[in-house]
Amino acid sequence: MQDNPLEQPKERKRRILAIDDDPEVLELITATFEEAGYEVMTAETAEMALNLMNDEGLPHVAIIDIRLPGLDGLSLCQRIHDISDVPVIMLTVVDDEDTVVKTIEKYAEDYMIKPFNPAELTARVGRILKRIGDFSYTMQAMIQIDENLSVDFVRQKAIINGRPLALTPTETKLLYILMQNAGKTVLTSYILARVWPSQSADENTLRVHIHRLRQKIEVAPSRPRYIVTERGAGYSFLSPADALSGAP
Question: Using an 8 Å Cβ cutoff, are 178 and 135 in contact?
Answer without folding.
Answer: no
